[in-house]
From TrEMBL:
Residues 1-17 form the signal peptide. This is NodB homology domain-containing protein. It comes from Mucilaginibacter xinganensis. Residues 27-140 form the NodB homology domain. InterPro entries: Glyco_hydro/deAcase_b/a-brl, NODB_dom, Polysacch_Deacetylase. One of its GO terms (molecular function) is hydrolase activity, acting on carbon-nitrogen (but not peptide) bonds. It holds the Pfam family Polysacc_deac_1. Keywords: Signal. Transmembrane segments: none annotated. One of its GO terms (biological process) is carbohydrate metabolic process.
Amino acid sequence: MKRLTLCLLLFSCLANAQQKIKWPHHKKAVIILTYDDALDSQLKIAVPQLDAHHFKGTFFLTGDINHTNISKWRAAAAEGHELANHTLYHPCNSENMPENPLNASEKYSIYQIMREIYSMNNLLFAVDGKSERTYAYPCTETQVGGKSYVDSLRKSGLIKYARIGGDHDAIITDFKKLDPLLVPSYGLEEKTPGAKLIDFVNKTEQSGGMGVFMFHGVGGDYITTAADAHKELLSYLAKNRKDIWVATFQQAMDYISQANKQD
């Protein structure tokens, strides 16, 4: 009898550990559309395409926002898009971004990167009036000066959730082990076709998990996703909105955090 009870307890623990999260309104999965670097093509093409389908994106902005576009970003925020932190100057390892030697992340200190994040939070507050902020590590690097700043970010309280990189297999299903400051994403390559974007959505839906897209340029700029491919993805998501929840990064992570507390 004791052995049977022990087996039942073990089975129960394993079942709970593998239990998939229940998405709102009986959705099967969640997709998050994120866009890096505050690019003009995002305002000109991505935002209007998102608005046409009533979807909200997450835009990781840098200090490159200026007097010519801040009003447009403010308008996007007013429509429900999330404005998120991507540092002021986008420090990146000089091997990955040799054209920007003054902002080589290997020369940064943790103090410098934290100060940039703090200052960018203040700039974003001036744009949208919000105090809670999410973050994406520039060039998906979690280190500066050869040292990780993830724990410093965690202790600072400046950032609620943070996104890292990944590939087309970066589908999240184990939410109990998900570090809210190390959330993986699908970093797109230049001119990724719409069919491949939709394939990632299908795999996410089949897993019952969460898939995070990392876009840069849309129909222009760099690491460009063609406008038609982006539109194809959004049209597919719109046709399947009954089963797929398209959320901002903070919305989805808030939901997951609350669900984990209730387990």
